[in-house]
Amino acid sequence: MRRPSPVPALFAATLLTLTACDHFAAAQATPSAQPQLTPATNDPCRVRLDPASTITVETLRAADGSCVPPSNLVVYRCDPSLDPPVAAVDVAGARRRFLGGPYAVPVAAIPTDALSVGIAEIGRIWITRDNRRLYVEAGGRIERWLSLPADGALSNPPTAFMLGDSILDGGQNDIVARLSDWTVTVDAVIGRGSSGGITPAESLLAIPDVVVVELGVNDVDAESFAANAQRILAAVGSARLVVWVTAHGPQPVTDQVDRAIVRMMASIPNGAILDWDRLVPPELLGSDGVHPVTGQEGLLASFLVPFLQTWRDAASGRGPTRCDGDVTNAVPG
After folding, report:
1. pLDDT above 90 as % of the chain
2. pLDDT tens-digit profile of 216-247?
3. Is 279 exposed, middle or buried (0-12, 13-18, 19+ CB in 10 A)?
4. Would the pTM count as exceeding 0.90?
């Protein structure tokens, strides 16, 4: 009998590794562009928190070294050992929050409509004029952070639609069981390519809170995949969260498909990527290099469910955003 793999622990370790990359990338930034961030006693950028608190807060400096008011934008972690970073932005009295770490998507360049807000320890922060997209640039890498919906925006219980192929088909029982406090609909067909996902996506009568797409490993042409994926995203893009699961397989086109996924999801402020290609342990896959071995059919659930639950918590003032009120109260002004 094959011993079950401790995948939840692996996901947690991966989550911590990905969030830790923010500080590593910032450390690689050009020193001359990085202002002094150590606050003086009377520093208007200083945020006073209880010394016993686990919360960490990063404030921003403008290019001239002046303070960007923390009431406008701060980056915090409720517990750096557990939580991905959150950027809290105040726009005309309305608070917007963006989730980083594994919820951030790499982009090729800063959009032309983005304005530089300032520099924090994680890097230079940019935000678009419509305040819907936030970017972090550090160490030659640019990421678009995930825009979170406002508190109270989710259905009760939250709703999710999942569209996929045999990977999702094999894992759906575990996913639905572990999301027992959600309303989940799964449409998974063995052997389905991206073209087979268009009709189910365009036939949705109501867009749920979350849409998860797990398609691409059965595609044989990256350009056709990209065209099909664009139609799927056009149909479901108004969801609170759209997650695309990357493909993992031995075919050379799979890498091209995954690059197309990253390019497309980068432009969607409510889009995130679950990197199945990087997360899945190869030793738990069968001889085809695609499907989990017998007894590991729930492998996808081990990564997807924590990813969704953490997002749900963050969108509901729990988990990564549970200390949002403490941060707000500690900000001067």
Report:
1. 74
2. 999 999 999 999 999 999 999 999 999 999 99
3. buried
4. no
Examine the pLDDT at 13 and tell me if it is beyond 60: no
Per the document, the length of the chain is 333
**Residue 271 near residue 229, CB atoms below 8 Å:** no
Q: Choose among 209, 280, 293, 203: nearest CA to 249.
A: 280
Contact status, residue 306 vs residue 70, Cβ threshold 8 Å: no
Cross-strand partners of 94: 91
3-class SS of residue 55:
coil
- Paired sense of beta strands 134-138 and 123-128, if any: antiparallel
Domains and CATH numbers, the chain: 7-147 (no CATH), 159-310 (3.40.50.1110)
* pLDDT at 42 (0 to 100): 56
Single out the residue of 240, 24, 54 nearest to residue 136, CA to CA. 24
Of 131, 103, 59, 124, give the one whose Cα is nearest residue 327.
59
Cα–Cα dist 328/162, whole Å: 36
Q: Which residue has the higher pLDDT, 61 or 4?
A: 61
Gap between the Cα atoms of 288 and 291, Å rounded: 7
- Exposure letters 207-226 (e unless 16+ CB within 10 A, then b): bbbbbbbbbbbbbeebeebb
Q: Torsion-angle region of residue 317: left (phi > 0), alpha (psi -120 to 50) or beta?
A: left
